[in-house]
Design the sequence.
């Protein structure tokens, strides 16, 4: 392609656009439409997309499902390939380290701590989980050096952790949070859904429906938050909730007096499967 | 394209190669195979090539041929297009400012001075010519921000000027000098050759043949330089030479005692047409 330019302003703006944009989608694999929506957004926004598939040992607790976390590289590559075929000329680099030492060399001893978020809400249930997440994402950011990185908002607290980390460490990376992808029933897509029995899957609909119910109840009005709290307490009588909380959507503080956006964050547990979901609301 | 990577080292080197490379070929247009050889090299080395066509007023003296310098944009674009067709997927941006003010805004008062080279050899014949060259190239470098820039070695002193400027100003740009392209007769290609009559074109062969003769005479041996000087003085009896000199190839100093590379630089004048040529020699 030959492009003719006659003015300096046009030239300068043409030159500005020349910079390659590197997008990054870090995942633990076992991909579903949620991951693919991140990949599609990254392909739209960037020249090249790095996509990592790495089950990060540091973010699993001792009793967690690290060993049994599904590893399905071939299926994952197929989904990625299929997605790529809709973006002609774009390149995807899949980074699927064979060994954890590729990401954490022997004696790697750095931890990126995110004290603000580590011990609250989901953090109370998963000791040092978010430090483990921040540490692996920091490490991958160091290796990949992306301009943009994409995270699903299903793990809302994780999104806040990463955003905070990048801000604290002044990393020149844009963190983009992408909407939750749901089944038509409303159930948020998750690798862990496959552990659910047919019955549990039916029961799981409670999770999003409860969030919607509270959200409709509040109706964008801050004045209704106190009453919503009562409603939540009623909902929480069902023992399957690990938690269902209203928090400030930016700080995750319990104090909502100055909030203009709040988040409803919840975990609903069926058997040993913990299902996460959340919803953000503007309130006036 | 989907590329699978399993090790961090491979990923890091893949990421390193992602950086877009911008090549730049600044010209005054009226293109010939010499210019196209620069473009080809730039296309091979880079992801995108910026190619400027700009007859720079600052490098013409008051009695020089600025007004009559040939402007042949359509033919030039055709040659560029043809060259591009051999480099599928590569992009060429042609910057052909319509007005000098695009490059030098009104009241632009900066001059990049290159005192080392401005007043010697070709500089004695063209007052402030090299300052004019350095100033326009500096300005274009500022606008285009290339990683690599390509210059023909036919204008050998110009090449040294640009290389010195980039070094002095610590510009992060690689300056690549490309060999002279010659007709089969040995005559170096130049936009100014078209001013020559058939007779003059025959006479012009003297230029390169004299350089070759001296070069063969020296035969890579520093010991022969003094005798070569005598030979040159004989050749210079022909009044058509503006000059024919041996200089250090890096510094253009007349002192060759420490030189390991020398340059033979010459201008042979036919009518009002000054023909430049040069040759670099290793000497032991």
Sequence:
């Amino acid at each position: 392609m030959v492009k003719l330019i006659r003015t300096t302003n046009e030239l300068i703006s043409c030159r500005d656009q020349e910079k390659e944009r590197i997008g990054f989608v870090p995942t633990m694999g076992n991909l579903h439409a949620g991951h693919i929506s991140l990949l599609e957004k990254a392909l739209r926004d960037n020249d090249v997309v790095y996509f990592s598939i790495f089950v990060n040992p540091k973010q699993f607790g001792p009793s967690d499902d690290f060993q049994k976390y599904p590893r399905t590289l071939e299926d994952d590559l197929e989904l990625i390939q299929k997605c790529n075929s809709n973006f002609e000329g774009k390149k995807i680099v899949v980074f699927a380290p064979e060994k954890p030492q590729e990401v954490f060399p022997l004696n790697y001893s750095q931890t990126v701590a995110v004290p603000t978020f580590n011990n609250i809400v989901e953090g109370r249930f998963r000791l040092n989980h978010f430090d483990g997440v921040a540490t692996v994402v920091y490490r991958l950011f160091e290796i990949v050096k992306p301009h943009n990185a994409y995270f699903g908002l299903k793990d809302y607290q994780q999104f806040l952790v990463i955003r905070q980390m990048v801000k604290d460490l002044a990393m020149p990376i844009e963190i983009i949070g992408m909407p939750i992808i749901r089944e038509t029933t409303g159930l948020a897509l998750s690798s862990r859904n496959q552990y659910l029995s047919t019955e549990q899957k039916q029961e799981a609909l409670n999770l999003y429906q409860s969030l919607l119910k509270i959200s409709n109840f509040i109706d964008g009005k801050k004045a209704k938050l106190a009453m919503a709290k009562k409603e939540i307490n009623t909902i929480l009588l069902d023992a399957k909730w690990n938690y269902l909380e209203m928090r400030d959507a930016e700080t995750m503080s319990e104090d909502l007096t100055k909030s203009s956006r709040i988040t409803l964050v919840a975990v609903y547990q069926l058997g040993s499967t913990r299902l996460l979901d959340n919803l953000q609301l503007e309130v006036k």
Q: What stands out?
A: Residues 191-282 of chain A form a domain with the Pantoate--beta-alanine Ligase; Chain: A,domain 2 fold (CATH 3.30.1300.10). Chain A has a mean pLDDT of 93. Chain A has two domains: 21-178, 191-282. Chain A touches chain B at residues 1-8, 11-12, 14-15, 18-20, 22, 47-48, 50, 77, 80-81, 84, 91-98, 102-103, 143-145 (CB under 8 Å).
